[in-house]
Amino acid sequence: MCHYLPWGDGVFEVKATAGDTHLGGEDFTNRMVDFCVQEFKRKHNLDMSKNCRFLRTLRNACEKPKRRLSFTSATDIEMDCVDQSNDLYLTITRAKFESLNMDPTMDLFNKCIELMDKCLKDAEIDISSVHDVVLVGCSSRIPKVQQPLQNFFRRKELCKGINPDEAVAYGAAVQAAALSGNRNGNGKLQDLVLYDVTPLSLGISNGKEGSMGVFIPRNLRIPITVNRISTTTCDNQCSGRVAIYEGESATAADNYFLGELILDDFPPCPQGVPAINICFDIDDNGILSVSAEENSTHQRKRIRINGDRRANCQGIEKVM
User: How many CB atoms lie within 10 A of CB 24?
Assistant: First the structure.
């Protein structure tokens, strides 16, 4: 989620952003899949939890029933010839769906509220100062998502008039037009300015202890450039690894690994002597570039990570 602050005259500033890349519609689907596997095992004494083909087909079969439960109290899940002799057919109610996602170990609905509270605290905004709550994304149609959200905002009416399937695509198109300079085509974008922020902290792994050394904290306005000097952690070290992470954990390994730079063949020295200049740069498009240069040899390497591909580390370009 994001909290926007309109300045007027077409200027918008993102004050804070918060979210969980492991929380979304797929999580709700997975809870339905697990329920169906258990029910099939109970009825037919067959455990299909290790059958990847069955699970993939079942996940697709659960998608439409999950969406139907947003506007009906019960629906059916059907799969023919699951094991060449038994079919899967069961009815799931909205109440059952909600109970599946309120597991004590991970209450998906309350998790949404925790993220909302975190975002407002980061933005230093009181709930009473929020004028509108706009819902986007298919899961925002789920009544059990809307109910605690409305309670959190003190019974404020939620804005449901925006098509959640089109909102993100429309916003991306507007942002792309603004960044490309195409502002005068129809006059609508001529005075639009959007100040965005970093969604998650960015940094490197700090030596042997593996802690997260933050270069760019979350919710800083972009574009932004940060330079820092690093050094070696062992005597006679002839190479260095700059491992780049994104996340909020104090331990680097618990965050998202984005990529790495390897500097080698610099003169062996006592630990702490070599000076390695590390630069984190995020441009207007949200693309992260990280460079590292060893001062004595001037060896320099750079890596560029596309903002929309950080989670799986694709789209990486290394410059020697």
Answer: 14
* Of 220, 232, 239, the residue nearest 280 (C-alpha): 220
155 and 232 together in one domain: no
Q: What is the pTM of this model?
A: 0.64
Q: Per the structure, how many domains does the chain have?
A: 3
3-state secondary structure at position 96 = helix
154: left (phi over 0), alpha (psi -120 to 50) or beta: left
* 220 in the same domain as 306: yes
Judge if 121 and 70 occupy the same domain: no
**What separation, in Å, do the N-terminal and C-terminal C-alpha atoms of the chain show?**
37
Burial class (CB in 10 A: 0-12, 13-18, 19+), 239: exposed
pLDDT 10s digits, 40-57: 899 888 888 888 888 998
SS (H, E, C) 219-287: CCECCEEEEEEECCCCCCCCEEEEEEEECCCCEHHHCEEEEEEEEECCCCCCCCCCCEEEEEEECCCCC
The pLDDT tens digits of the residues spanning 62-90 come to 999 998 998 999 999 988 876 667 788 88
Last residue of a domain, one of 135, 163, 195: 195
Which of helix, strand or coil describes residue 102?
A: strand
Residues 302 and 246 in one domain: yes
- Contact between 276 and 229 (Cβ < 8 Å): yes
124 lies in the same domain as 98: no
Boundaries of domain holding 277: 202-319
CA separation for the pair 204, 216 (Å, rounded): 10
Instruction: Identify the CA nearest to 229 among candidates 164, 179, 175, 278.
Output: 278
CA angle 65, 66, 68 (to 5 degrees): 60
